[in-house]
Amino acid sequence: MALSSLRRPERQKERRLSGAEKAAIVFLCLGEKRGSELMKRLDEREIQRITRAMTSLGVIEAGKVEAVMGAFSDAVRNGSGVVGSAATAETLLRGFLPEDQVTQLLADARGPAKETNMWAEFSALNETVIANYLRGEHDQTAAAILSNVAPDVAARVLPLLGPQRMEDIIERMISMEAVPQAMMRQIEETLKSDIMADASQPTSAELQQRMADLFNRLDRDLFDTLSTSLEERVPEPFNAIKQRMFTFDDLSKLDPSALAQIMRQADGDTLPLALRGAKKELRDQFLQALPQRSRDMLVEEMGIMGPVRGRDVRQAQSVLVDLAKDLAEQEIIRLPDSEDDELIE
Question: Which of 177, 186, 273, 314 has a CA positioned 20 to 30 A from the CA of residue 103?
């Protein structure tokens, strides 16, 4: 679909481009290689302003691009316009800046997260309804949609699409660097008209983290089955995603004081239910982190629970993992790094 069919003439006419936005258009027209070379000559403050403008630029019609570019009008006219997004800014910046500085610049450019309800509303739909909708969509479109819904929703929807299609869609989700803005806008307008028209694109690191969160919530046996296939089909990106995963078994890498903090946050039957399905070594680690009286009470509670459903156990374990992540974000505990996950006494 041509970008011109997606623009809103009334809004475009009223909007006046700032100096930073005009500079961003110039860099987009120059392309990654020449744009990177030129940006090397700017100071950090100028780079920040242009990056901020580029991440929120959205679709700019050809007429406005021509007005900004002047001498480049012929080349711009052939391309119908340009698209500015977080993904294009990220690609350009990686041409000459180190990883940590790119991450910081993009975070500064985005600023406070915008309130967007369209994807939240779509995620709230029953997973069967979402799966039925996706059955009529192309795999690439389904991958783009599931990359934007909550990871736990995507984890429930994917198995409903069947084994082969689930693998095909997951492979596309892993390999997807960034969805073109025009395509995302068309998808969003199809799902719900005029909601989140200016949705920002996630960076490659954010896409990997979303996939890691999705895999964390998949059934363990299902993930093990998928891993064999994905390691053959997309080995490098899949390995990068696995490095970002944090599962229930990874709690074994925490020290006793961290485990005690997690257990204090657990409500109701969450703890005994989670430990009923845990490996003996990990269950013993949890118990040893408790005072003797609390340990005896927990063992007794697990003993009188009777048979429990595997799905309930996995849900309880997922709650403990989420508690661990929340405590880590609050800097109450420290999660092990993938590069250094051994504890040294």
Answer: 186
pLDDT at 106: 66
Distance CA 185, CA 198 (A): 8
In the chain the domains, ranked by start, together with CATH numbers, are 3-110 (1.10.220), 123-244 (1.10.220.30), 248-329 (1.10.220.30)
Judge residue 260's burial from the number of C-beta atoms within 10 Å of its C-beta, 0-12 exposed, 13-18 middle, 19 or more buried.
middle
Q: Which residue has the tokens 């299902």?
A: 222
How far is CA 41 from its chain centroid?
Answer: 32
Classify 279 as helix, strand or coil. Answer: coil
pTM across the whole model: 0.41
Say what the pLDDT of residue 337 is. Answer: 62
Residues of the chain falling short of pLDDT 70: 1-15, 32-33, 35, 41, 43, 70-100, 102-117, 178-180, 192-203, 337-345
Strand partners, 82: 60
Q: Quick one: pLDDT at residue 97?
A: 66
Alpha-carbon distance 182 to 6, whole Å? 7
C-beta atoms surrounding 232 within 10 Å? 9
User: Contact, 271 vs 299, CB < 8 A?
Assistant: no
Calculate Rg over the CA atoms of the chain: 24
User: What pLDDT score does 117 carry?
Assistant: 61
Q: For residues 64 and 59, what is the distance between their CA atoms, to the nearest angstrom?
A: 11
Q: DSSP 3-state helix, strand, coil percentages of the chain (rounded to 5)? A: 70, 0, 30
CB 303 within 8 A of CB 296: no
Half-sphere exposure of 324 (CA within 13 A, CB side): 26
Q: Which residue type does 137 have?
A: E
User: What are the structure tokens assigned to 291, written together?
Assistant: 């005072």
pLDDT value of residue 56: 72
Structure tokens at 313: 């156990």
Concatenated DSSP letters of 55-81: HT-EEEEHHHHHHHHGGGHHHHHHHTE
pLDDT score recorded for residue 160: 93
